[in-house]
Amino acid sequence: MDYINLYQSLRNQINFDDDFITTDHLNIYNFTFESKATALLSGTTNYRCEDHRLNFDHCEQEFKTDMNEDELMLNTKDIQIIDNKRFRYHIFMPENIRKTNRFILLFHGFDEKSWDKYYPWAKKLVEHTGKAVVLFPIAFHMNRAPGLWRSRYEMFELSKKRQASFPLTEHSTFSNVAISIHVHARPQRFIWSGLQTYYDVIQLMDQIRGNNHPLFEKDTKADIFAYSIGGLLGQSLMMTNTKNYFSNSKLCLFCSGAAFNRIQAASKFIIDSEGSLALYSFLVEHLDHHLKNNPRLAHYVSEVHPEGMNLMSLINYHKMIEYREDKFREMSDRIMAVGMKKDSVYPYYEIENTLKGISHDIPVKVNILDYDFSYKHEDPFPPNKKYEDIINEGFEQAFELMGGFLKD
Question: pTM score, two decimals?
């Protein structure tokens, strides 16, 4: 089946309600996950790190006060958002396999609320590798986002009010207004939600390696396919290698791999200019100041929490250079990146600069693809019937390359 028909077919058949769906030589399972890491999130003033038996009192900043009343309705206590705590995730399996010891974790991009475009990707990875594919959502994204965020009418009205309150705002749309407000109000949410997702993945791995998952053997090996901002999570998992879960794993980065401050995030499909500016200011320009004033945050991104320290090493290209490059050098034979020449969000040369290092002497394989059809970062393979043949050819080329890397 060609790409566009496959895209339409899968998006029409797949849902989160059914526990089991079978289609086109593929079995799809839905499982419920309950995060044990929500205590990290904003919503209280007293926090505790159980690993180090440390209490942190009154160390979270107050909500921003320059937001209009409508925006404040989205600036809720993160710890209380049930959609983010308890959610469903898909597993794609070859139809003739009931239990396996090989799978691929698939991570998506920033501010996405629908898995539709990833269904053909996951199916192709299953076909090319013979492995199961787990589509795991990042905190406050996809089906972990509050239901209100997915209301087209509510978000359209909110975007208009946001543009009136911040007239210089660019790229504000119904699609990105919720996450833009979420991050604009408290940019540290980027770190906390990233860490929550990290711990959620480890929780899933604990379940699998503890022989407590019906689809996976105890000795299961996980590889990673990470797109866009999901690459930060994939890289952090590989660099930290908690409990040696990723000692022999491969990481395939698609339109991903550059340090955070080398990408262009502001987009009507990702985050508006005000949200992007707040995030950049917090993570890059004034991070040292924020760490001095927030001992809890400083603790979770220090060497005692290597998962947080590794995440921070991927934020600023000009900091922690030797540390980051030593990590990439150690696992260079287990990383491959695929960039796209016309990608303006994750420019291919920034992917190379980060993964290959400042001197371009780290032997990470970076492949650059380009196509004659109109594509963009947010939609590498647009389901456009007018260019059906060349889009299908480009899709097959990309996933044959990436699937081949992840096969063994």
Answer: 0.96
